[in-house]
Structures are given as C-alpha cells and as structure tokens.
Amino acid sequence: MAGGSSRRWGRAVRSPLGVTAAVLLLAVLLLAVFAPMGWQARADAVHPADILQGPSGDHPAGTDLLGRDIFARVLVAARLSVELALAATGLGVLVGLLLGTAPLLLGRRAGRWAGALVNVAVAFPSLLLALFFAVVFGVGAKGAVLAIGLATAPAFARLTQTMAATVAGRDFIAAARIAGVGRVRILLRHVLPNIAEPLVVAATMAAGSALLAFAGLSFLGLGVQAPGYDWGRLLGEGLAQIYIHPAGALAPAVAVVLAAMAFNLAGEVVARAIGLRSAESGTPAGPVTAPPPRAAAATEPAAPLLAVENLRVTFPSLGAQISPVREVSLRLRPGEAVGIVGESGSGKSLTALAIAQLVAAPGRVDADRLEFLGADLRGGGAAAHRRLLGTSLAMVFQDPMTSLNPTHRVGHQLAEVVRRHQGADRRSAWARAVDRLHAVRIPAAARRARQLPHEFSGGMRQRAMIGMGLMASPALIIADEPTTALDVTVQREVLRLLENIRTADSVGLLFISHDVTVVAQVCERVLVMYAGRIVEDLPSGALLQDARHPYTRALVAAVPGMETDRDRPLAVIPGRPPDPARLPSGCAFAPRCPLATEVCREQDPPLAAYDGDRRVACHHADLAPVAVAPYRTTAGRDES
Length: 640
Hints:
Blueprint: H1 2-14, H2 16-44, H3 70-100, H4 102-106, H5 108-122, H6 126-137, H7 141-168, H8 171-178, H9 183-219, H10 231-239, H11 247-274, E1 306-317, E2 320-332, E3 337-341, H12 348-355, E4 364-366, E5 369-372, E6 375-376, H13 382-392, E7 393-396, H14 400-403, H15 410-422, H16 426-439, H17 445-448, H18 458-469, E8 476-480, H19 488-505, E9 508-512, H20 516-522, E10 525-530, E11 533-539, H21 550-557, H22 598-602, E12 608-610, E13 614-616
Parallel strand pairs: 3-9, 3-10, 7-8, 8-9
Antiparallel strand pairs: 1-2, 1-4, 1-5, 5-6, 10-11, 11-13, 12-13
C-alpha cells in the first residue's frame, strides 16, 4: 500500500507541472525560513549616501529612501508575507469548513441558517469583504489576517457545502447512519475524504490569493505597519518612486507573483497525487472470531420480526402535506421472505427507508405500530435505535458503487460495523471482515479486503454490500433493488446468496423490486404497491397466475416471456402513475383500470381480507381475472 502511494506521489512530482511547482514552492519556503537569518542586518542597514540608487552589483534592486538594500528587504519580507498568508488561509479554511458542513453537523434547521449566511456573504466580492473587515478589526497585521481569512471563508464554505451535500446523499452515508455512526465521524471518515481533492486545490489557491490580498491591504496602509514590512508594504513604497526608480516596485511585485504561482501550482500537484488514496492502510488478518449471538427476540417464533401498521410518510409542500407512502401495514416473521413490487414512484424504497429510520427532515414518519425485534421504533432513545438497527438490520442498496465509500478499502468499511457497535479491536474486526467476504463467495477475500471499491466488479461489490450487512449477524435484511443493472448470471448468484443466508440463519428478508418474476422466485409473500399504498398482499405462488387486483395482473402481463408473440406489441399499462400531490378521488388506479366503475372513482377501496390468506384493495377483485389476460409462462423463474 505504501509503495502504491509513493509511486503516485513520485509520478506527480516528476511531471513538468510537479517539478515547476516543487522548485517554486521550495524556494519560497526556504526564503521564508532562512532569509531573515542571512539578510536581516543588510536589509535594516541605513546608508544616507546611497538613497534611491539604481540597480548595481552591490544593490541588485537598488535602494530605498533611506538607502536600504531593496533586494535584501524583499528576501527578508518573505517570512512575514508567507506567515500572514498561511494564517489567513487557515482561518478562512477553518471557518469555511464549519459553515459548509453545518447542515451535516447541526441538522437541517441550524444548517439552514448557516447556509443563508453563506449565501449572503458570497453575494459580496471578497475584496469588499476584506476591506469591510479590515475597517472593523482595525489596521495592522492581526486585523488583516482576520479580514482576509473571513473574506476567504464564504467561497470555501460554498464549495464545501455543495460537495458535502452531494456526498451526503449517497447510499454509503445512509448505511453509516443505519450502523449508528455519529455525525462527526460520518463527516470526518466518509464525507471529507471524498471531497478532499477540490478542497485542497481551493485551499492552496486561497493561499496564493491571500498573498495578493495582503499585498493590497499593505499597499493601502491597512496591513502591516512600520517598522514591520511585507511584500505589499515594499510594493507601496516602491510604487511611490516608480517614475524615478522602477526597480524598487518591480522586485516585490515579482516576489508576490512567483509566490502566489507556487502555491497554486502546488495545489494542482497535490490534488493529482491524492487521487482516491485510502485514509487507512491494510491490517493483517488474525484468527477469525465467531459471529456475535443474535438478539433473543429474533429467535422467538411466536413474535413477529417486523410489525408495521398504518405507516405514513409525509413531506411539507407549499403549505400542504404530501403523503408518498400511506396506510402501509405488513408483518414479517423470522426467516420469512416478503417482496414489495410496483412501478417506479410507488413508494417501495421510501417504505424501506421509513422502516430503517432513514427518512430525513422535513420528512415525517408516523405509524400506529412500528416494531422491530419487539422494540417500538416510534419512541425511545435515538442512540438505542441506532444500535438496534445497526446490529440487527442490514440494508442492501440498489447501486453498490454509491453504497461503498470510494476512498476507503472494502475491508475497513466492513470492519467499522463491529468496531462501532461491538467494541471489537482492529485486528479481530479485520478478521471478521475477511471472513464475511469469504462467506459471500468473494475469491481471495484477504487480498480483496485491501482493495478499493472501484477494483471490484459490479457483482462483487453487491456481494461485498451483503457481506457488510452480515458483519453483525442481522435478523432482517432489506434488499432494495439488489439485482438492478446486473447481468442475469450475476443476478442469479446474488439471489442464491440471499436465499442461502436466509435459510441458514433464519434471517428475515424484505425484498424490493420492480421485477415481478424475480420476486415470485425469491419471496414467500408479495406486497404490491401503487400510489404509496399496498393494493394487494398475496402468496408468491398466486402472483403469476391468480392475482386479484387489476394492477397486479397488469404488472405480470407486462413482463415478456418465452411464449410472448414477438409479432405483436408488448403489453403495457396505459397512462401514468398519479402524482402524490394530486391523487384522484376514489381508487388511485381507476384512471388506468379496465374495470373501473363509478364506485371506484368515488370510493377508495380498503385493503381487506380476501380468500383467507390474501388482502386486496379493489371493488371488483372477483372480476380481475378477466381484466387482463393471465400470465401463462414461467419465464424468468429458477426451476433448478
């Protein structure tokens, strides 16, 4: 791992850009450190006989109004100029990071105020802000540092806010929240490493800009005061004599430009070298530890693993409340597989997020009952819920590339689960991660654990996500479209893996998909969702042949099979799903239903018991078999 990092840095530094940046930056830093030691006396020596002399062998840049050597003064001024620029940059970066990450650290409400402050500050040019703060804090080096630092902060905060918001919406952040990782750790471990490259570039460019800003303030008399001097003050003194002694202004101007260029070019080189380097190196695996025991409640067959009654998710919109999920009720026993199917936007994934307590504000989750392993998720301490969900609930998201942190090695991401919740040491957590990767059939698990997510194939990443869910021996796995974008061979492997895990450890499975044939293959019961509610609950054996809701039968008929006539158009469901903000009166499916009557358009049918072990929300459930032609093929089902 160290060799790869060294090679990456070596390639970056040996490039033409890297060589130029290294030479310039090294020269500036060496001057800042050693110039006062060698030239301080010469820079301060006053020679009245040599006032305003031009360039010569003794004075390469001439002399000033007191006969002091300008070249020596420029060299000595490097230390104060660089120190002040770096101090202002550090202040600006720190304040910008705090403001930009406020929504993640403080929550949406406090973060909104921080965002509003950033928006107001960004509207003003940074130079005007610097001048304003310089007047507020007073003239002098300290006031200039505060002024330039605070003037730099808004732009850095806006960049941080934008980049952090992009990363915070990805699935691996949601997975970290399920695991109970705190806000500060999520920020430091998962967010900042993924936005480090643009922040490094912005910070180094800000250092170059700070040099120019200090030169401007000192030139105006607001920065460094006599008897101190920086490049800006020397530039102001030289500019006053530019018509009779131009070299006096040229030397500090060249110093400012070269130093600013050094910082800017160095930032580009560092950003290239950082790449996607992991923050941690691999840890050798030790003896494989036994999986922790499952919670006692999960082994009680009489108690439901998950019990949900009348689940509702609402979002505010223009003074109204939109409910994209409504009246959802389900039960899931240990070892049972329940599928949720429906078109995009039907509320499948949002239902899963609500169960996992991942619906962020201003969204609101309400339910008459929401219990997992006997614990009521509607109340109680958030920390206790995070621990319960982090150890007993596993979530497998749709896109594994967005579910795994691209800057951390796969093994470390798996190990974090048991280190966070079970207090495992680094060695045993790593051993457990390797064991889980092996359990999900990833070859050479010890070597693969030290690789980054982009080094895995799509199927391997999905298996790694399942392995992450198994780190704490979960009682329930929620798989949200786990086979989307995978080829049929890899899809079959993932489905078999989920089935083996479920049967071996009696793990409950909530399987979400838009593919009715896959759900019929994997699950024992199927919930069909439309417009945010369950419209049919039936055994999977009846899904393909004997569904009683017209929407369910239409979904089945829309799937082509081996017996589908290729000379005829594929079956489609006419119309579009309704907008959750404008649901029609009566049954939401009525505008698209061939059986709709006046009662359907006026009364929304309840989800009622039908034929013993089913529930159907339809006024004409008995007539559904004639509404859409039955699905007569077993295409897509695993007959092995």
